[in-house]
Amino acid sequence: MPLHIHTPLIESVPLSRAAGRSIWLKLECLQPPGSFKIRGIGAACEHYASQGAKRLVSSSGGNAGLAVAYAGRHLAIPVAVVVPETTSERAKELLRLEGAEVIVHGASWQEANALAQSLLGDTDAFLHPFDNPLLWTGHASMIDEVAASGNKPDAVLLSVGGGGLLAGVMEGLARNGWGDVSVLAAETQGAASLHAAMQAGQPTAIDKVTSIATSLGARQVCAKAFELSQGGLVHSVLVSDQQAVTACTRFLDDHRLLVEPACGAALAVAYDMPQALAPFNKVLVIVCGGATASAENLRHWTAQLA
Ligand SMILES: *Cc1c(COP(=O)(O)O)cnc(C)c1O
Q1: Measuring from each residue's beta carbon to the nearest atom of ligand 1, which residues come in under 6 Å?
Q2: Among the CATH numbers 3.40.50.1100, 1.10.390.10, 3.40.190.10, 3.90.640.10, which is that of 9-36+134-305?
Q3: Of these four, 55, 159, 228, 231, which has the most CB atoms within 10 Å of its CB?
Q4: pLDDT of 240 strictly over 90
Q5: Alpha-helix residue ranges (DSSP H) falling in the chain
Q6: How far is the CA of 158 from the centre of ligand 1 (A)?
Q7: 107 alpha carbon – ligand 1 mean position (Å)
Q8: 9-36+134-305 with 37-130: one CATH topology?
């Protein structure tokens, strides 16, 4: 039994109406730890467990860390997550609820990650949040499920942080004979690392992440994501933080599901940017989810960004 669940694939009437075309949703927000990340991370954790790993280590206070904690609990392997002092109480509480040991260290993710690396012994496995082929192959299972339904889209719309989801979706499209499907890669303007690299035509880091969509906050996408972006099928689309948050609120009303602004970035393209979707009749949106935002957070951001 894999650690992820088979998620629903539904046609969205409200989003189809807003976008003026058929919009289908792959509801990864319904994965038990709250996001698609459990697909790849669950598969990777199972792999490391079969290799004899005695502990799983992460340096993510977000959905990647939550997925590791969830996987460890189900595999009965201890989990340590090192997070910086800036990590919210809610995120730490969610990690502890999954039974993970939470170690708070350093002012930034770099320092927390450095400590996590220094802790690694011979029987520990480190789980990177996006740059690991085991993750991409695991994420690809969401496209296997869509392909099994026979429901081929003209384009897949997804959010991009470090590019693990992008790499996984494209692996899934390729392995199901759907390698001709376009990919719309949504980022918020303050976390546009894929966009920067595509503009530059070479791997590029952005100076800093300024978006509230913290789950998209990788300064540079993984090499695999950059390489895939050069194949002609990936189109970069940028939205503002305000558009991402507004999309989350609309989605909550339309589908009664609460997602993070990281996911709102992709939803905003469907709600607000019909021109980006113009060439496509049928668009599959990966509703990547995210467990770290509350309804109160959404209200706060809405007021702050107005
Ligand atoms: C991790 C994450 C992303 C971005 O995924 P990458 O593999 O880093 O590109 C987007 N949305 C949510 C909710 C996430 O947890």
Answers
A1: 35, 37, 62-63, 130, 159-166, 215-216, 218, 260, 262-263, 288-290
A2: 3.40.50.1100
A3: 159
A4: yes
A5: 13-19, 37-50, 63-75, 89-97, 109-119, 133-139, 141-148, 164-175, 193-200, 223-229, 241-255, 261-272, 274-277, 295-305
A6: 9
A7: 22
A8: yes
DSSP secondary structure letters along 214-238:
GGG--SS--HHHHHHHTTS-EEEEE
pLDDT digits (tens, 9 = 90+) for 204-228: 999 999 999 999 999 999 999 999 9
- H or E element: which one contains 24? strand 22-26
Give the SS3 label for residue 140: coil
DSSP 8-state assignment for residue 289: B
CA 260 to ligand 1: nearest atom: 13
pLDDT band at 151 (very low <50, low <70, confident <90, very high): very high
Locate the domains of the chain by residue range.
9-36+134-305, 37-130
Residue nearest (by alpha carbon) to ligand 1 atom 4: 161
Q: Say how many Å lie between the CA of residue 124 and the centre of ligand 1.
A: 24
161 CA distance to ligand 1 centroid (A)?
A: 5
- How would CATH label the architecture of 37-130? 3-Layer(aba) Sandwich (3.40)
- For ligand 1, atom 2, the nearest C-alpha belongs to 215
Nearest Cα residue to atom 14 of ligand 1? 215
Ligand 1 atom at minimal distance to the Cα of residue 263: 11
Ligand 1 atom nearest the C-alpha of 162 is 8
Q: State the Cα–Cα distance between residues 83 and 110, nearest whole angstrom.
A: 10
pLDDT of residue 11: 98
| pLDDT tens by residue, 159-173 | 999 999 999 999 999
